[in-house]
């Protein structure tokens, strides 16, 4: 019964946490018995079971309960198979969604060597616009996960493609995550490549794209500021924050710093 398998999946994370806390008594129970179930349910025929398996996997990764070797040798190969060009459409959409969500939880080396090549392929998926939409919406998170060098070498060309996609929802998603992408690049790339690209979005024929671009204009401009002099920096939760100067701290030490909430790229996935 799919409902039984779904319920079982929901119990995996708390059981795994218990085993982690009791590792001297259960040294290998999670890796021998529970992890194989999670991986198997990622390819279950029932979509609710797969969804429960995906949520369980993300919780396990977030809690740092999956060994690096298991991530590279077991989790990533399954996701690469599910997101392959000849994979079923539904499985592919789910796989790219997991890849984007787990990128921030993995080491930069793992993301760059194992997941980034497939992500770049999926950005150009001509069959499913849903796949390209997920890539566009999470583009900033992937840039942050791999760092400046890989972003400028591999991701910026793909970002240009998505910003000129024939589907306006793709261009809108790019406009919404523009600040996160810009923040990962060098000042020169920001000035010479991203600025003209942003102008094209702010002049787009679709008013929804233009509106999203205008809403991202201030955040994009903030990435040109020198953090040491302007005090602007991006927090881990995707918000633009202002670090008070030493003089301000001395004069009003009890006053909280100003945080300007910005929509992170992952929050715009919908």
UniProtKB/TrEMBL annotation:
Has keyword Repeat? yes
| SUPFAM superfamilies tied to this protein | ARM repeat (SSF48371)
Single GO term (MF): protein phosphatase regulator activity
Alphabetized UniProt keyword annotations: Repeat
Quote the PROSITE patterns the UniProt record gives. Answer: HEAT_REPEAT (PS50077)
HEAT repeat boundaries on the chain: 115-154
Q: Which GO terms describe its cellular component?
A: cytoplasm
Task: Give me the ranges of the annotated region Disordered.
Answer: 245-270
Q: Does the keyword Repeat apply?
A: yes
Matching PANTHER family: SERINE/THREONINE-PROTEIN PHOSPHATASE PP2A 65 KDA REGULATORY SUBUNIT, WW-BINDING DOMAIN-CONTAINING PROTEIN-RELATED
Provide the protein name: PP4R1 phosphatase
* Gene source species: Picathartes gymnocephalus (White-necked rockfowl)
